[in-house]
Amino acid sequence: MQKPSFNDIFMLLAIELAQRSHCVKKQVGAVLTKDTRIISIGYNGPPAGTYNCDEIWPKTGCAKRIGGRCWLAIHAEQNAIMYALNNHANVKNAILYITLSPCLSCARIIFSVGIQKVIYKDSYAAYKNIDVEEGLDFLHEFGVGVEQYHPVKGHCAK
């Protein structure tokens, strides 16, 4: 019997975590790892103590602000990184597994905290219907490894 790879395990966990999101528009999950150990997890949604979008605005989600962005959302990778740093975890040279490639703002954070590699499932540019993967381009430009996840044959990711 073939054992699942850590890439499969961590991406499947990110996919499951995405289901915890209160976002009506897009659910995203993230797993932050180091040396094959999980150091933090996250999913997109509002800051603790604010509104859960799916409860307050179940049909539309939160209102968009200037630039068309949700005004409550914290991205999954931001949640995972902030939790790790708030709990004094060393994220330098960590690997981030995420169900949606990072936006440019998140890419800047990923680079700034020293994460060495991002493994993503789906394209942010395709989701936003834009032509360029700004976040991935930024990470690549500044030496952060970037890899699109492809499940090992026999192990499927949802």
Automatic annotation (TrEMBL):
SUPFAM superfamilies for this protein: Cytidine deaminase-like
Gene Ontology MF terms: dCMP deaminase activity; zinc ion binding
Residue ranges of every copy of the CMP/dCMP-type deaminase domain listed in the record: 5-133
GO cellular component term, pick one: cytoplasm
Keywords: Hydrolase, Metal-binding, Zinc
InterPro entries, per the entry: APOBEC/CMP_deaminase_Zn-bd, CMP_dCMP_dom, Cytidine_deaminase-like, dCMP_deaminase, dCMP_deaminase-rel, Deoxycytidylate_deaminase_dom
Record-annotated active site: 77
GO biological process: pyrimidine nucleotide metabolic process
Cofactor(s) needed for function: Zn(2+)
Annotated binding of Zn(2+), by residue: 75, 103, 106
Family: Belongs to the cytidine and deoxycytidylate deaminase family.
UniProt protein name: Cytidine deaminase
The organism of origin for this protein: Candidatus Cardinium hertigii
